[in-house]
Amino acid sequence: MSLVEEKVCIVTGGAAGVGAGIVKTLLWENARFVAFLDIAEREGSFLEAELFAKFGALRAKFIKCDISDEEQLGAAFRQVFDKYRRLDIVVNNAAVLSADDHAYKKIVDVNFSATVNSTLNALDIMGVDKGGKGGTVVNVSTLLALRPKPSLPVYSATKIAVLQFSNSIGAEFYYSKSQVRVLTVCLGPTDTAILQKPNISNLDKDFTQNQTTQAPVRQRVESAVNGIIEVINKGESSSTWMIANDKPAVNITQNILGGFQTMTDSLGLTLDK
Ligand SMILES: NC(=O)c1ccc[n+]([C@@H]2O[C@H](COP(=O)([O-])OP(=O)(O)OC[C@H]3O[C@@H](n4cnc5c(N)ncnc54)[C@H](O)[C@@H]3O)[C@@H](O)[C@H]2O)c1
């Protein structure tokens, strides 16, 4: 049985791209209810109508919400919890990509600060230590977080911040009290609008310059979504997963930890917990 069954879920950035795929798949997998938060009103309302027709009016709701606005995000969480008196799964998927580093505040606010805020909201509601029943938070990062990224310094910085935050707040120290798994997925290039924006030409150039063979495969949205559902079903808290090239999710937790270990060893530092 899928862990998704009968669960009450929130997905940020759920009106389009990977987020919309996650919303639909959660419903197909018999989630009880999925609220999807997005600023894109037209896409959100359109998807909501499609979901009503397929699943009935009680299983999905579009909430127009700028996740970088703390009040709006808090109100969206309250709206869901007040109605269902529970929350089980939160997928922090919304992000913006811009090569205009002068837009740094927005990129940091949406990609990192809102992910932190949403995770903390989720822990407050779902944490066993806060009177909740435990649950799952999936934070969406990227393979670009795993190496310096000259063409997208701010975007990639926010995404490694997401990775560090998630792995730290998902650690056993917190999980043993909260029973809320915090998981990170690093997606490879995926065929969505985020890659169609004009500034993305830099990204492609950078990719091709750094690869001797060929441009990276843009995997299907379905592959990213299936990988994320797989991670929800089997990921341990604080684990990191790679989902790329239309392949199943790969657990890269030891690669990440090994990388940090090599660095600290070479510097003669000791890693504490
Ligand atoms: N597509 C890729 O190649 C790729 C690769 C690696 C990681 N990712 C990550 O996957 C996730 C999903 O991206 P996508 O490819 O589906 O992009 P997308 O642009 O298709 O979808 C992002 C969604 O987030 C919404 N959003 C943006 N700002 C928001 C805000 N302030 N409040 C609420 N919603 C907001 C957008 O309206 C949009 O619906 C992101 O975290 C992205 O960084 C994507």
Query: What distance separates the N and C termini?
Result: 34 Å
Overall geometric form: globular
At the fourth level of CATH, the homologous superfamily is: NAD(P)-binding Rossmann-like Domain
Q: Which structural class matches the secondary elements? A: alpha/beta
Low-confidence stretches: none
The name CATH uses for the topology is: Rossmann fold
Percent range for β-strand residues: 15-25%
> What are the secondary-structure elements, in order, as H or E?
EHEHEHEHEHHEHHEEH
- Strand tally: 8
**CATH C-level label:** Alpha Beta
Radius of gyration, in angstroms, nearest whole number = 18 Å
- When the domains are counted, the total is 1
How do the strands of the widest beta sheet line up side by side? Answer: 3-2-1-4-5-6-7-8
Give the biggest sheet: 8 strands, mixed
Bound molecules: nicotinamide-adenine-dinucleotide
* Number of helices, where a helix is a run of at least 4 consecutive DSSP H or I residues: 9
CATH architecture: 3-Layer(aba) Sandwich
Helix content percent band? 40-55%
Spell out the blueprint of helices and strands:
Blueprint (H helix, E strand, L loop, with lengths): L7 E5 L4 H12 L4 E6 L2 H15 L4 E5 L5 H15 L4 E4 L11 H23 L8 E8 L10 H17 L2 H7 L1 E8 L13 H10 L10 H14 L5 E4 L6 E2 L1 H14 L7
The site of nicotinamide-adenine-dinucleotide has 29 residues, from helix 1, strand 2 and strand 5.
Structural description of this entry:
- The chain has one domain (8-266): 3-Layer(aba) Sandwich (Rossmann fold), CATH 3.40.50.720.
- It is 47% helix and 15% strand.
- The protein has helices at residues 17-28, 41-55, 70-84, 104-126, 153-169, 172-178, 201-210, 221-234, 253-266, and strands spanning 8-12, 33-38, 60-64, 89-92, 135-142, 180-187, 240-243, 250-251.
- The chain has an eight-stranded mixed sheet with strand order 3-2-1-4-5-6-7-8, with helices on both faces.
- Helix 3 (70-84) runs parallel beside helix 4 and helix 4 (104-126) runs parallel beside helix 5.
- The mean pLDDT is 93.
- The protein binds nicotinamide-adenine-dinucleotide (NAD).
